[in-house]
Amino acid sequence: MKPKRRLFRRQKQLNRSAAGNGLLFTLMFFCGIFMALPLVMIANNALKPLDEIFKYPPAIFVKNPTLENFTDLFVLMNDTWVPFSRYIFNTFIITGFGTVGHVLVASLAAYPLAKHDFPGKKIIFHMIVLSMMFSWTVTQIPNYMIISFLHINNTYLALILPAWQFGMGLYLMKQFMEQIPTTLVESSRLDGASEWKTYWTIIMPNVKPAWLTLAIFQFQQMWGNTGSTFLRSEELKPLQFALQQITAGGAKRAGASAAVSFILAAIPITFFLICQSNILETMTTSGMKE
């Protein structure tokens, strides 16, 4: 009985008191407020009139909210010979196909690396890990040469295809797929399921947190792509490029620049919040152990 009492006392000491929990939550609350201040200021700057934008010292919250900044932004975009809707269409095409294609390609390539044995498996995986060690500036010239060789320069594919070969996604999916019990995959094969059906009905639902996380990262990266390296035609360029041209106008376009900053931050944050809820729900309900 004495060892049990000692074990019970030792476990009881590890639990935090109510005061400790309150202090921890208070600290996390203030840290959350501090981290949210840049987002709050971006949203308030988008609603500030010009006199409040140039006010010193700058105020975080707006006193006289207005939508003139967004009105000026749309007026500037309508003055261009390419419609504003065209930039939005280009952005959703590039971001959508780049994100979905990257998730599919990364998961399809990670499945055999995680659940199959074949010659050269370790070498291929080490090459993938090694590719992540290089900076994007090192691979910029080879990527441009490959795009030119494929004759897809100045097309959507020039931005979409390079997004599919990002090694970080394959590494993430492979590491997550290895946590799935091998017996589950073998049972699916004994039931007569094909490799494609096993991948689509067994593997992908159980690695939902991984590919949702990957989709968040890839969406943010594709959303911020200006396409200036491969796209020369104005009607093919994404929204990010057009908005950067507006912000380069200087102080006279400070209001429109504030609206641009809000738009560029709002879409990725919204996508992140939607996917984050699904990630947390999936992690708590679909955990599996050997």
TrEMBL record:
Q: What is the lineage of its organism?
A: Bacteria, Bacillati, Bacillota, Clostridia, Lachnospirales
Q: Which residues cross the membrane?
A: 21-43, 87-111, 123-150, 156-173, 254-274
Mention any Pfam family matching this sequence: BPD_transp_1
Q: Does the keyword Protease apply?
A: no
SUPFAM superfamilies assigned to the protein according to its UniProt record, in alphabetical order:
MetI-like (SSF161098)
InterPro entries, per the entry = MetI-like, MetI-like_sf
Q: Name a GO CC annotation attached to this entry.
A: plasma membrane
Where is it predominantly found?
Answer: membrane
The source's domain of life comes to Bacteria
Name under which the protein is recorded: Binding-protein-dependent transport systems inner membrane component
